[in-house]
Amino acid sequence: MAHPSQLGFQDAASPVMEELLHFHDHTLMIVFLISTLVLYIIVAMVTTKLTNKFILDSQEIEIIWTLLPAMILILIALPSLRILYLMDEINDPHLTIKAMGHQWYWSYEYTDYEDLGFDSYMVPTQDLTPGQFRLLETDHRMVIPVDSPIRVLVSADDVLHSWAVPSLGIKMDAVPGRLNQTAFITSRPGVFYGQCSEICGANHSFMPIVVEAVPLEHFENWSSLMLEDA
Amino acid sequence: MRKSSAVTKIAVQADSPKLNYKEKDRGCTAMAGEEAAGQNKGFKLLGILDVQRTPCAREAILHGAGGSVAAGMLYFLATSRVRRSFDVGFAGFMLTTLGSWFYCRINNAKLRVQQRVIQEGMRNKVIYEGTVLDPTNKPNADAPPGPP
């Protein structure tokens, strides 16, 4: 999850998010250099004593300020398109989970092998135990096996919602009557938090998402327990 | 709460041993108090570039600063033109920063690729060790042939 007053991205928990972080650093350095250049030019313009009232054109500088931005845009666009297509790859998922948005909770269904489903409500602030995160914890987490490709089918029961987990680099709109598909692999075990990202009513801010990535054996134990209790 | 004959809401025991795993390995998360103690605010150039946390940023900026000073000083010593020396110094900063940045990033990218190959190899070694698919198994001429 984000730490207080955090402005940047959360640590990546999936390969796609790692790529997004690297692309962001690359683009930010370009933006920083352009900003520095503009700042320097402004200071130079303001402090110079030279004036030229009769300048009409200059082929050299016009070539430079046409070609240079074009090269910069290509330098940004190529990695961007690469990641765009990388995010659309679906590599034979091991598990398919349906995430349904409701007002105001998420429900998850694991129906590949058995019928397993549960609702995930936010833990109210007054019910939190010490160490839990306010407005982020849920009573039931979406547990997945680590290092396994997971497909998530996102939809909604009533109004628009959006299933988002920043550290996995995922955001997918939940549209009533439509199935949206996304896929991810968690590269490390852990607990990853997200929040509904489409305005959906009074409690839009109070329907978080918690994804827990555990080793396969733990996942099998968890799912067996869930099915036994059914 | 949604209910159906096929899908049933299930209550999970909070102290179930299989769920204790999440308490030990939180990945990127931590208890609220631990985060505040360990975090220090990064230094952001122009308010946007966090040179402490962005890989290669610190080295690129330092190399750029050094290149800028060197280029500007050399030009000034050669021509004694102050204003133009600043311009040359700035150009040196841009070129040195860019060069250092991309050199470091390319090396990091190569390291990441090697890391992934090694991780994949380690994972495959665990899976395939002792089987016919183990790439480290040398074929034994005296061994009987495998099943057809």
Task: Provide an overview of this structure.
The complex is a heterodimer of chains A (230) and B (148). With 230 residues, chain A is an alpha+beta fold. Chain A has two domains: 15-88, Helix Hairpins, CATH 1.10.287; 95-229, Immunoglobulin-like. In chain A, 33% of the residues lie in helices and 25% in strands. Chain A has helices at 15-47, 59-87, 216-229, and strands at residues 95-102, 105-110, 116-120, 142-145, 150-156, 161-165, 170-174, 180-184, 190-195, 208-214. In chain A, strands 3-2-1-5-8 form a five-stranded mixed β-sheet. Chain A has a three-stranded mixed β-sheet with strand order 4-10-9, covered by helices on one side. In chain A, strands 6-7 form a two-stranded antiparallel sheet. In chain A, helix 1 runs antiparallel to helix 2 (59-87). With 148 residues, chain B is mainly alpha-helical. Chain B has a domain at 53-129. Helices cover 55% and strands 3% of the residues of chain B. Chain B contains four helices and two strands. Chain B has helices at 21-24, 32-38, 57-79, 82-128, and strands at residues 44-45, 49-50. A two-stranded antiparallel sheet of chain B has the order 1-2. The longest helix of chain B is centred in the last third of the chain and has 47 residues, at 82-128. Chain B starts with 20 loop residues before the first helix and ends in a 20-residue tail after the last helix. Mean pLDDT of chain B is 72; it is low at 1-38. Chain B: It is found in: Mitochondrion inner membrane. Chain B: The chain crosses the membrane at residues 60-78, 90-106. Chain B: This is Cytochrome c oxidase assembly protein COX20, mitochondrial. Chain B: Pfam families: Cox20. Chain B: Keywords: Membrane, Mitochondrion, Mitochondrion inner membrane, Transmembrane, Transmembrane helix.
